[in-house]
Amino acid sequence: MSTPRLDVLKEVYGDDFERAKRRFEDIYEKFKKEFPDSEPEFFTAPGRTEIIGNHTDHNGGHVIAGSISLDSIGAAAPNGTNTLHLFNEGYGEFSIDVTRPEDFPKESGTISLLAGMTEYLNKNGFKIGGFDVYVTTEVISSAGVSSSASFEMLLMAIINHLFNDGNLSFSDYAKAGQYAENVYWNKASGLMDQMACAVGGPILLSFKDEITYEKIPFGFGDYGYDMVIINTGKGHADLSEDYSAVPNEMKAVAKALGADRLCNTSLEDLIANMNDVVKKVDNDRAILRAIHYFTEDRRVLDMVDAVSKKDFETILSLIKESGISSYDQLQNVFTNANPTEQKITLALAITRLFLEKKGRGICRVHGGGFAGVIQTILPHEDLDEYVKYMSEYFGKENVYPMNVRAVGAAHLEK
Known about the structure:
Helix 4 (147-163) crosses helix 5 (170-184). It contains 13 helices and 12 strands. The chain is α+β, with helices and mostly antiparallel strands and 414 residues long. Strand 3 and strand 4 (92-97) form a beta hairpin. The strands form 2 sheets. Strands 1, 2, 3, 4, 5, 6, 7 and 12 form an 8-stranded mixed β-sheet that branches. A 4-stranded antiparallel β-sheet has the order 9-10-8-11.
């Protein structure tokens, strides 16, 4: 049976390589059942965690993000036609003509993402042909760890390997995914999710001009700590308005200061012109969100410095401050459309009781917020007790201890 080489699996999955091997054996069998005449290549793309830099990307700021141990995997082979034929386990079967992506519907889930990425590639001179692919994922859906970006980056890794001789950059991957979400899904996606899933490892991202990134040498495990993601459950309200309001309100403050985005002005300018901005914007929350942007962007750069000094106490303190600022100023822990539903707020409160009893560890809202996920960072010796504790309230299936992994979207050699 064909699977990725064991040394390759060990590099990507570490001590979990045996379970990864079984996953690829399983996906190989499923691929061969659907496409018996083809021999597949194997691919992976992780979900992502935002470590610090909550809602700064869309206004030209900095983010530290990392790929996580939960990933999407695929088995794929070219089929010599113009048809992309996808089995997406748990989501369904899809086919598109890669020469005519405009024929396929928008705002229709997976098929729209496929059409959008294909259209981006065609418009920008990249190659794509027909291929057969079977995909399965462990990345939590609708929970702030970028299941859609993981899927997009998996498909881009496949397309890069099968048709472009590995010549696409991670920025090309990310822009194709963003185009699909912006144009075909009507979702105001930035590039942070896609870049974190594509590149892998902890990375510092800058969004001021052309997106840039650099890997940084950091992992919670280096200091005897673990990261845990708690999926509190998808909110019942439509969150599109909440997500769009954050960048729009920040940009309204920037406009009042004579700039297009907050990265082109400063906290000092805001404070010096506060009374004028208050009159122009007439939205106190927008000003609070702008203050969050400026202080959060500074925290990201301070964390880069702390990482270089291996100052873990400062690292934890900065991430804790990030969570407090998201709670108080950014205000993305629940939606005003349904203020009685506050799963994130409740999960944070329950977690803080645990951490205060232990006298160590931190927690914060994770990702876009308003509903979904919190992130907890705590010593390894407290991990099992915390998992059991939170499982009482949210179910063990929603408590995910995880690591930041070094490998992003990639072809896995056999």
